[in-house]
Amino acid sequence: MFESRFQSFADSAAPELGAAHLALLRAELGRRGLDGFVVPRSDAHQNEYVPPCDERLAWLTGFTGSAGIALVLRDEAALVVDGRYTIQAAAQTDPSAYTVVPLAQQTPEAWLAAHLPAGARLGYDPWLVTSETLERLRKAAAGAEAALVAVDGNPIDAVWADRPAAPTAPVTLRDPALAGETTASKLARIREKLAAEKLDAVVLSDPHGVAWTFNIRGGDVSFTPLPLSWAIVPQEGRPTLFVDARKLSNAVRDALAAHAEIAEPVMLERALDLAAAGGATIRLDQATAPAQLASRIEAAGGKISRGASPVALMQAAKNEAELAGMRAAHLRDGAALVRFLAWFDREAPGGALTEIGCVAALETFRRDTGLLKDLSFPSIAGAGPNGALPHYRVSEASNRRLNPGELFVIDSGAQYEDGTTDVTRTLPVGAPSDEMRDRYTRVLKGHIAVARAVFPKGTSGAQLDPFARQFLWAAGLDFDHGTGHGVGAYLSVHEGPARISKLGTVPLEAGMVLSDEPGFYKEGAFGIRLENLVVVRPEPTPPGGERELLGFETITFAPFDRRVIDPVLLTDEEIAWLDDYHARVRELIGPLVEGEAEVAGWLIEATAPLQG
């Protein structure tokens, strides 16, 4: 009945191949006169999702997580991963070949400093590390009295016999009604920013920024409609867009040629030579630009300005057309989610539901809209103790049946042409325990506190992050992830530069779309996360006030499960917010499901006032 077309549950890890692949790499390193090599999980753009041809870390080690770095020496090798992946990395790698090192215990640089022999030559691919990462590696090598060597051509590519080809998905033009701003206008704003900062040019190394600037989308990676590409935008003169010509139809090429020169990506370095001539100052995005670009600019006599891409903040502050699209996408997605929740309530008591079955069902309800382009990330669907793993990814091996007395966390999102969604609900299977209701209600109180927040312009996400944690803190509890991340408009579901987090130092601006997703996780027992997306908007300054104020508009619409709420823990203001929110869900989603009697009836009951 239900199927998943956008997400695979097969465990693609092949730990049994790790030792053989490691031997192939070491032989190639020997041929090149290298004693070691650094293998990050990244592509040349530092993308969250990378094409199969760039999954070098997975090919080498078997580890399929989204973050990690392998450090290969002649006689030993380490895989350094953060806390999300220590268990997964141990399960997916051959312990005779790799030592899994938790990042919290030892950084890659510290491991190298302790294990790299004096006089060794450690190789790295300058296209896969940023200048910041390179500087840390350089210090570690120097401390071990070893040499750090940039390779010309990745040695893994030389021994990866069946390496997939680079992607060539077609580039499409963004509908002007959804983009809300022309490419010419965006380029003009970028040039104004360059002039204000006395920069001669900027390199757009982040394909998200390229896609936004030139109003294009693509399909080169999973879950994000990206065309892998680069651009150089000078303060004066025409930009150059570097994109594989095989991705461009004649119509798309003609439209882009009106704004920029079109060149193959292999021409990027030569173009940097020309742009840097005469000592030009060029901005490189410190978060995404590979170290190779900096080396090339400096060798050509240019000066590097390292900092944030000027496109990042422009892209994050959505215009009215983008926000209208996001709102429309969320209503459509909300109706699909309500259909899923009604189905879940009907089927869960039967005891036949599984994590994979629920993921496939929700995706099917979204596909039934006729407008789903992709998921926005692999769905997180954790039952019972699996729900206590914040970044759990269900596989055929880990798939768990939903049992009575458990909680089920479903965190999922969709890509529609008019917007990107991300929503999490925590659902009871049978009667929840008092502890579950207490923790759920504390998480809900934190969610409401963020949603209701009003704050002065210039406030950062770090200042708002405690709003979500205060009720857990009061009980001696907390959660170990950020409260919220930025979300793109039919782009990345994890978009910078702003976030609601202890590390979120960028001030929030009107038009930004962020998640509001506090949680709680009891290891081995259950997890809770509640997530809506919100838009930063201006708020009126009260009489006598002296500051411009901002607040949030919630744009996700789906019921919170009232069976897991303890009303005694809620204030009158919190109950009023929840009842108002549910009334809004009923008002907006009700007409979209009114022809479906069972779903419509379920929605009326699920959105009834909390007390009465």
TrEMBL record:
GO terms for molecular function: aminopeptidase activity. SUPFAM superfamilies: Creatinase/aminopeptidase (SSF55920), Creatinase/prolidase N-terminal domain (SSF53092). Keywords: Aminopeptidase, Hydrolase, Metal-binding, Protease. The keyword Magnesium does not apply. The keyword Transmembrane does not apply. Residues 325-537 form the Peptidase M24 domain. Residues 549-610 form the Peptidase M24 C-terminal domain. InterPro entries: Creatin/AminoP/Spt16_N, Creatinase/aminopeptidase-like, Creatinase_N, Pept_M24, Pept_M24B, Peptidase_M24_C, X-Pro_aminopeptidase_P. Residues 23-152 form the Creatinase N-terminal domain. Belongs to the peptidase M24B family. This is Aminopeptidase P family protein. It comes from Ancylobacter oerskovii. The lineage of its organism: Bacteria, Pseudomonadati, Pseudomonadota, Alphaproteobacteria, Hyphomicrobiales.
